[in-house]
Write a structure and sequence with these properties.
The structure is a single chain. The protein has 335 residues and is an alpha/beta fold. It contains eleven helices and 13 strands. The protein folds into three domains: 85 residues, Nucleic acid-binding proteins (OB fold (Dihydrolipoamide Acetyltransferase, E2P)); 148 residues, Rossmann fold; 65 residues, Probable gtpase engc, domain 3 (Ribonucleotide Reductase Protein R1, domain 1). It is 29% helix and 22% strand. Strand 1 and strand 2 form a beta hairpin. The relative contact order is 0.12. The structure holds guanosine-5'-diphosphate (GDP), magnesium ion and zinc ion (ZN). The site of magnesium ion has 5 residues, from helix 7. Magnesium ion (MG) binds next to helix 7.
Length: 335
Amino acid sequence: MILEEWGWSTDFAEAFALWNDGHHVPARVIRGEKNYFRVLSSVGELTVRFTGKIRHHAGGRPDLPVVGDWVVIAPQGQQRGTIVALLPRRNSFSRNISGRRKGKEQRAEEQVIAANIDLVIIVSGLDQDYNLRRIERYLTLVSSSGAAAVLILNKADLHPDPEACVKEVTRIAGTTPVFVCSALEPLQLLPLQHYLKPGQTVALLGSSGVGKSTIVNGLLGEDRQKIAAVSSSDGKGRHTTTHRELFLLPQGGILMDNPGMRELHLWGESNDLEESFADILTLAQGCRFRNCSHDHEPGCAVQQATAAGALDRDRLANYLKLKHELQALQKSRAS
Ligand SMILES: Nc1nc2c(ncn2[C@@H]2O[C@H](COP(=O)(O)OP(=O)(O)O)[C@@H](O)[C@H]2O)c(=O)[nH]1
Ligand SMILES: [Mg+2]
Ligand SMILES: [Zn+2]
């Protein structure tokens, strides 16, 4: 059945049972526009809006539907409908957008980016985009969401020694698999096929211009997504993908293309770093003080590791930065 192809599962079916009265259908949000959504339902693709009621019931923005969500629709005719409820999410991605609104105090504010993702493909470009610290931030973000991750170093053709980058990234990636490719050569995307499975939702995340939409087109086997023309001066693509969107792959599986996000402040908890910085947390068990800040305390095993060259100083600095960011977030949420 079509809904299963789009990721429908027994959990969602159980949640929908409450609404199964003949007047409602379940649907997946496949594209978000400013004032409406495109959803895929058992009665076909529909353009829907959400009712004031759901806006009212939603405690805040995090409860409003996003791409990837399963929702309950009251269809109106063949092509339209309204969203009357949001089915519980299996997982979601959020970022902190505090400070984005001018004139408001810097209070933490959650923005849910996408929901119900099984795997995230974090894409980095082996051009000016290449940045280990940004990769660490993405890995932490994915870890907060509970989805699995794979790392792709794209634009291998633009780098003199892509294998050296693979080695470097593998060192910070923990158990996350790392691939290198040039998306301009679709054959190089073959290893990714292994991660695309019927009913599974795979999201591509990464800065603008790294080649996410090129990868989507390569995997779809057709040019569905517009690709940015790169200006030769800075190697950066323009924002061509302005919408988050789900695509059904011909061989099964669902892909989510995303626009690049300039600011990616974390929304999560400090223990989200346990996966993305497992090496540092293991080292920290050897520190003399349990609450060691790994800054200047005596008997700090983490500092000893950086002095011995076993741990990169920049990685430690980034860990501390992300930790402070998450602690500040926790404080702001508690206040
Ligand atoms: N040289 C090179 N260019 C690439 C590669 N992949 C994508 N591009 C180019 O990078 C630009 C941005 O690609 P796009 O897919 O729009 O990036 P997105 O913003 O992440 O979706 C386009 O001009 C692509 O043709 C690659 O592997 N090598
Ligand atoms: Mg794009
Ligand atoms: Zn320490």
